[in-house]
Amino acid sequence: MDADTTRRALSLEALPAEIVTSILESLIPQLPEIGETRPVSYHKLMPGEPWHDFTRCRRGLWSLCLVSRRFSAEAQPLLYRVIALLNEESMFLLFRTLVEHPLHGRWSRYFGIHLTLTRDSCIRETRRAVGRLLGTFKPAAEPKHLMVPVTHALKIMSLSLPVLSTHDGDFDDVPQVIVAFMLVFLSRLETLLLQVPICDDHPEYAALFHKAQTARHHFTAHVNEAERDLIPFERIETLLLQGDPELLDHFENEECDCEIPEVWGSQPRRYYPLFACFPRLHTLEVSTDDGAWSNIMDERPSYLTGDTTSTLYLAGIRHLYIHNSVACPRNLHQVLINAPDLQTLYMTPRRDDDFYRGPPESTSNAHPQALDAALTSHARHLRHLDVGWYDVSGFESLIGPDGRLASLPDLPRLEKLCVQLAALYGTSPATALQTPLAELLPPNLIELTLEDWWWSNTTTLDDMEDWGPREKLTHYRNQREYRRLAVQMLEQFAGGFRERMTKLKKVMLLVKIPFTWVVEDGIEIGFHFGEAKRLFGEKGVEFCVEASDGIAFEAEDEMMGGGMLVAVQRPRVVQDTVMGGDDDGRGDESEWEDV
To answer: Which domain of life is it from (predicted)?
Structure first.
């Protein structure tokens, strides 16, 4: 074998096509989770930052497009598979690429728009990009049903150029129009991330709604059966409404001196025109909403709509994920009413001490719009429930009777549940934990997460950042009786759940205040749960404990089996404070030795 043949055998060009494809597909980037601000600079991103891997994968695919025709043919579709718009000029350049090469749009499956289209800065920069780049467009001739309306829109933009940058207000919808046309090109799109306003100073996307509705009507009417895959929005299954994270950072910054609205956040209820444009939409993910989920279509006078019937604006949604939300239990009642087919309801809370905005309710009787009432009447398809709050003191009735989700045992389809202990037992840990846990849970659970949280701990959570070793240890000792009751509850549950709950496979305790269970360098969390772990293990159930900050406490058999751990170099303050005899029935903590 000569040298040239050897070099060819060792080159990428010589690899089988399926291997090359597999290598290139590993470079398809994964976008950061919803709610991340866009990157400031490519070169300043460090490994581990949310946008680092995304930008490097994109750069790698782009470089491979320049290697050879073969690699360009392989890499270019993957380059368009996942798109994230991070500035106004790149948005307009992508629009130009789609106008000149319409078929490129069919490669896209994920499209993220990390710009708030109605912000003044976005409108201003988009106008500048139009002025600089519109003259460079060379529109394709085909397909005519797509290019005719696009070419018409480009002519209107061209005629408007002389006044585009001088007349405020007249051209504020240009970013929305451009995005609407781009979505028409992306006919096989499956997931759309749309960054949306979080305050009324930046209005919602009325122009985008109108253009989307018009485009869908036009294409549905003019495309024949053989071209059905060209109808826009036909394949979108997931919509992510990302509340403007940059404005959120500004509001939460201590140096913010602007007038912050009393209630702020994205308003997903106003995006129902988009929901209606996406016939296959089944998953909605929202970040930083304003908490209100009522149906605004019900608020419009019937003489304006010509229809007296109520339309459920979330009727097609089966999976709803709400991040960083100020929605109270009553708001989730509205969600369940408007989403009759909902299978997943997930919500993480945002701290807002005033979001209930009303006098405290009586805690003895459930509010008519309590979450528990909606679960009873509107959750027949629900399989995954994960909701929680920082504090509902004085408003427990919005959860259910005595602040409890009493309907959970009557939800036979529920398979995954994450629930706060306070929402299971009510307001008093000392008395309520005597009720057997298995009686409070759905019978067909597969995974259960219990969040170790009571409303009375809100102040503790606020103060915890400033605690030193002695404050942490004082808290630990003050929680002795609570730990005894909680461990007793888990052991009782582990010993007797199987008769009622035959499918259970995993139980997790999620700890929000680690120092209830941990003494730094002295007592690990596994010290308390050896017997519970053993009892769960005998029945084939995995048991683990995790702190809400993401620190996992691995409950190793050799560490938990004997109910005794070895402390490593505990400080003197631990020796002084932990002394005092038996704790939780798990041994004498004063006997622990340094090693």
So the answer is: Eukaryota
